[in-house]
Amino acid sequence: MMDRSRRWLNLAKQTATMALEDDCLGRAKGAAYSFILFFFPLLLFLVALLVVTEVITVIFEPVINFLPRVLPQGTQTLVANYINAMVASEPTNLLVGAFLIMVWTGSGMMITFIEGLNRAYRVPAARSLVKERLVAIGLVFLVGLPLVVLALVAIFGSHVEGWLISRFHLTLPWVWKLLRWSVVLLATTVMISIIYYVGPNRQQTWRGVIPGAALATTIWIVATAAFGAYVRHFGRYNVIYGSLGAAIILLVWMYLSSLAVLVGGEFNAVLARGRRRPNAEAQGCDMTNTPLLPPA
Question: Which of 247, 225, 252, 240 is nearest to 68 (CA)?
Fold first, then answer.
């Protein structure tokens, strides 16, 4: 038991040290900047798509009610007002433009993660600029699939529960809620795992990326809850930034989310380095500044 505790403590220290050495704090700033540039075109594209398909009348209220569950306090009004304005303007003519901007800015965020993961694993960025951009664009769509599942479960989970209760007279108090949020957590872990699996310029295994994805999801949940509590009780961003206070809160939350992804990647790299070291030492190899695996 004591040896296991020491091992986990040592892993935590190594991860923190490597995160500082690889400038995860600085990279998270770049990712957060791309994140906020991606966030609003994404909302615009989704609203325009829902208006075109006339689905907006069905899910508008559930979406607005869902925002406080995932966004820090003080930002829900900003996002809700943005969605309201887009619905009122019926931005169907912006559908293609919003889609292109969303893909480009989203790929910029993914490139920041890819660069951070390459640095964590100590592998060269051997991909060409075009190939790296295509990989990043592919990640935007790959991550989008579990994101859709996450959004549907989180938004409509309570409605499904109500339908089951009224249709089959079932009482599902905490069981259904636990199941619903387990799916949300699983979808979040899958999204981050996809970034870790596809992003770095090295051969990956799903077994090798899941621990960091689970850690990143945990950090994200804790950081979101802690930051939300701070904003509720101590944050006075409006006093300093005025009307930009809500946008600053949203940007800080995106920074914390990006940092969680980068730290999870560092954790996977530390684990991979630990798995490789015994084999290398047995063969008398020098582990100093060598990539963990050959670039793909």
Answer: 225
